[in-house]
Amino acid sequence: MNCKKYRTQYFMPPERCMDWAKKDKITAPPVWCSVDLRDGNQSLIEPMDERTKIEFFKLLVELGFKEIEVGFPAASETEYSFLRAIIEQQLIPDDVTIQVLTQAREHIIKKTFASLDGAKNVIVHVYNSTSVAQREQVFKKNREDIKKIAVDGAALLSELTLKSGADYRFEYSPESFTGTEPEYALEVINAVLDVWKPTPQKKAIVNLPATVENAIPHVYAQQVEFISKHMNYRENSVISLHPHNDRGCAVAAAEMGLLAGADRIEGTLFGNGERTGNVDIVTLAMNMYSQGVDPKLNFSDMPYVVGAYKKLTGMSISPRQPYAGELVFAAFSGSHQDAIAKGMALRTSDDAEWTVPYLPIDPKDVGREYDSDVIRINSQSGKGGVGYVLKQNFGVDMPRRMKEVMGYKAKAVSDRLHKELKPDELYKIFEEEFVRPRTVFDVTECHFRQVNGIEATVTIFSDGKERVVKCNGNGRLDAVSNAIKKYFDLSYTLTGYEQHALTDTSRAKAISYIGVEYGDSAYWGAGVDDDIIKSSYKALISAVNNLLKANPQSK
């Protein structure tokens, strides 16, 4: 590898432009423009056909986009026919503006205008490349020649619009802006604006594309701020950004660019696009949402958006894609799960301020579920996560010390199987370990009467034989416990006795949890029954079975 062959291919403004760095928050959403539908921008292996483009257009409208680039109609028959279809079928809502792209070349501009017949709200976006690399290597033209291309293109847009009687808006891009000297980019932009002479009623859009991302994001922000401060007609213009993601910093560059004075963002769903893609509008919008700013786009059903995107484009998204990936809310780590569970327990309502550790937003806000999406159980998980899943899915709320034991049981199973444990699998472990361990003994009958407190007549089945044992106690559970102790000549101490209802219905079952201490260890059991007394001694039977399994010499 030879890094010496690379050099800086961007240009800093002639003055330091750092006012953007004094701001700590984006306080209002930009104008969003989706550029998802242009084939050259999408760079799909199999470009979308007309039917698919129409379906994608409807999705973008549904999500709330008010400006949508529908293609480069002079570049391909598919893009031309798609544009004609949405115009002729009247699929464009009155509050949505379509955008078409054209190079600053006469025949391409004229074909573009021909494709727009009958359209109401239109932005005609004209561009030519201004970067040093393009001027020297591709066009072999000097600065004046390149500026003339831009000015001539701008003039033709004005001329054709006047002839058509339409009221189109105009947008200009100095393509490869980030590889252009900022002073020269400003010169070209001002020359274009001098042709259009934008007004408050008909603002021009000046787009500053990071056609290739070639610098740290703060460089882009300074370039944007420089243009914003010095361009003519600023009050009558909209500064738009079109960041690409070659360095993986498009979202950061866009956010800094907005702080630097930009008003508008061109991007795509999930950052799709040529090479490494465009800026991801979903991430940008949800970043604002997470700071309390309404982005004016609706991603409340993210699984639906992801599914539609995959179907329409044939692309996939990473499980770690911000806000949208399968695993972005998942916590496997025990300490993280514990913190999330405690944070969730403190929430008083869905509208309360969101402060849950490790979760930047409420998963419900994007159509995700706490139970299946947040706490995920594998060999890294701990008692907090295991306890949370059992409580949320099955109403099982174990004592703290029992959760720890259950956590180790679950970790051991996951580690042995090398897999994540789903909630049903977790409950099966709980039942096998704490509800149904009857390998040493079981109680087949139990009767009580009040004699010297409570007398229990307990039928114990063990080693293929039944034996009836009578014992007294200060309560039913104590009497059953004394009978078991007498049968096995065993001494232990009851600890951690808790119980609660499993459902809120009139036929609610009771679940009890009991720990028995023997030596330096505690053994746990759980019992479920319609009768609260039966549930408690069932839990005791399970706990003592676990004790005897672990200490066979005590039997």
How does this structure look, described?
With 555 residues, this protein is an alpha/beta fold. The protein folds into three domains: 23-313, Aldolase class I (TIM Barrel), CATH 3.20.20; 334-423, no CATH class; 442-554, Double Stranded RNA Binding Domain (2-Layer Sandwich). Helices cover 40% and strands 18% of the residues. The chain is built from 18 helices and 14 strands. It has helices at residues 39-42, 50-63, 77-88, 106-115, 132-139, 143-164, 182-196, 217-230, 250-259, 281-289, 302-313, 334-345, 370-374, 383-394, 400-417, 423-435, 476-488, 532-550, and strands spanning 31-34, 67-71, 97-103, 122-129, 169-175, 204-210, 237-243, 264-267, 442-449, 454-462, 465-473, 493-501, 510-518, 521-529. Strands 1-2-3-4-5-6-7-8 form an eight-stranded parallel beta barrel, surrounded by seven helices. Strands 9-10-11 form a three-stranded antiparallel β-sheet. Strands 12-13-14 form a three-stranded antiparallel β-sheet. Helix 4 runs parallel beside helix 6 (143-164), helix 6 runs parallel beside helix 7 (182-196) and helix 7 (182-196) packs across helix 8. The longest helix is centred in the first third of the chain and has 22 residues, at 143-164. The protein is elongated, with a radius of gyration of 34 Å. 42% of the residues are buried.
